[in-house]
Design brief:
single chain, 447 residues, mainly beta, Immunoglobulin-like, 6% helix, elongated
Length: 447
């Protein structure tokens, strides 16, 4: 009987960390072995099931992203002079072997196994070492699954057809150092116009009367059900009123990304090209004409996973709610201050409106390897009201002022590189190249 036990110096590692520990092999009788190996591995596995009539076919891929090996028995001085094919005897007892490995920044990709045929064998991608992902983290359907594992493995190898190797795994969690991404956009915005919100001043009213109005009459259906209030530019309404254009902005600090178990790394603003005096009385007090009301706000993280196996591909999106606000939060453009953009004026939404800590169970930093890709987008849905008592169109069911912002973001580990350590490479995550056989619609993978 052979027992193997593995101990390591910690449970969480990052790039350039040293995985150090001890492997203990206990045998109660003499054991004839080829060798005892200790290995450090990172493996990305993907599986896709395809239905062919009444038959379900399973296709798998397995990629070794890290593979480091140390032979601890027999000793190196014995192994170097031994004849090929000779085996060695391990006496009974408890045998301890020390090991030490260093985790790299990027992968050492090697295709290990394909079921039924080899596909794209020499087209591996260079990428940063991916984070550990449990199977349930990435896949949510039985038709497709994927996982990334990091572990130390001890193998007592025997020769012979009827001989079976004895092995033991010790899994650990790996989180990569945040990648250096260079220059990325930190501000995302969507335009919206509140049509006819402000009455014209006397001088503006005179000018507007000299401009012929659009004679196009709305259709009967549009009068009954209402129409969209969002326009690409200001439009003078028949009621001799002035439009109020705004931009709804999401601004990040240094990197367009969010971090698990950390406060929100972005701020929300409403900006306008109109000067605050437009909404003020002669004494500088607010006239109330620049008041807007935020009635709903929802922020979601969209996790997109793409899995491939032997030419088949599945993808799916998982939505993770980060924030939900319902109520009435007043925004007064008369109190706007100059924006950093120079020609705009801004009002920042208080953190209480979208107070959130990014507690995202099962969310790992974005990554891309040969057979698994994970990327993220931040989706912000905001509903405004022009007045406190404004009702929606279509019998009050449709919001008149709804703004949608959706843009790519990074998910960060929060581990920053030291000054003398080079960060892992940054590879933008995108859908893998074809050719791929079209996938059945029922087999999409859920993140």
């Amino acid at each position: 009987m052979v027992e193997i036990d593995i101990s390591i110096n910690q449970e969480l590692y990052t790039n350039f960390d040293t995985v150090q520990g001890e492997a203990t092999v206990t045998n109660d009788a003499e054991l004839t072995l080829d060798r005892i190996e200790i290995k450090l591995e990172c493996v990305a596995r993907s599986l896709i099931r395809v239905q062919r009539g009444k038959t379900t076919l399973t296709y798998t891929e397995k990629h070794k992203l890290v593979y480091q090996k140390l032979v601890v028995f027999p000793p190196e001085n014995v192994l170097s002079v031994a004849s090929p094919g000779v085996q060695f005897t391990l006496p009974p007892g408890r045998h301890r072997y020390q090991f030490l490995f260093k985790l790299p920044a990027n992968n050492e990709d090697e295709l290990i196994y394909h079921r039924s045929f080899v596909f794209r064998q020499n087209k591996h991608i260079l990428c940063a070492l991916p984070p550990s992902c449990k199977r349930k983290t990435i896949s949510g359907m039985s038709s497709a699954s994927a996982q990334v594992e990091h572990f130390v493995k001890v193998v007592a190898k025997k020769k012979g057809i009827m001989s079976f190797n004895t092995r033991k795994h010790k899994y650990f969690t790996f989180l990569p150092i945040d990648k250096h991404v260079g220059h990325l956009n930190l501000v995302f915005e969507a335009e919206h116009t509140f049509v006819g919100k402000m009455p014209l001043r006397a001088d503006e009213e005179k000018k507007s009367r000299d401009v012929p109005l659009d004679s196009t009459k709305p259709s009967r259906l549009s009068r009954i059900f209402g129409s969209s209030d969002t326009h690409s530019g200001p439009v003078i309404s028949p009621g001799l009123a002035k439009n109020v254009p705004i931009n709804f902005q999401v601004r990040f600090y240094e990197v367009p990304g969010v971090q698990v178990n950390a406060p929100a790394s972005f701020r929300l603003f409403v900006t306008t090209p109109l000067h605050p005096s437009t909404f003020q009385l002669s004494n500088g007090e607010t006239s109330g004409l620049g008041e807007l009301y935020l009635s709903e706000l929802e922020i979601q993280l969209e996790a997109l996973t793409v899995v491939t196996a032997q030419g088949y591909r599945r993808s799916g999106v998982r939505n993770i709610r980060l924030c939900k606000f319902q109520g009435l939060h007043k925004i007064d453009l008369a109190r706007a201050v100059p924006s950093h953009e120079g020609h705009l004026f801004e009002v920042e939404l208080p953190r209480d409106v979208y107070k959130t800590t990014m507690v995202m169970e099962g969310v790992v930093p974005d990554f891309s390897v040969c057979n698994i890709k994970r990327s993220y987008a931040l989706r912000t849905d905001a509903i405004f009201k022009a007045t406190k008592d404004e009702t929606g169109s279509f019998f009050g069911l449709k919001a008149r002022h709804k703004i949608l912002l959706r843009h790519p973001v990074l998910v960060l580990s929060g581990i920053t590189p030291e000054a003398d350590i080079q960060a892992p490479i940054y590879v933008p995550v995108s859908a893998p190249d074809g050719p791929f056989e079209p996938a059945p619609p029922y087999a999409d993978l859920q993140a």
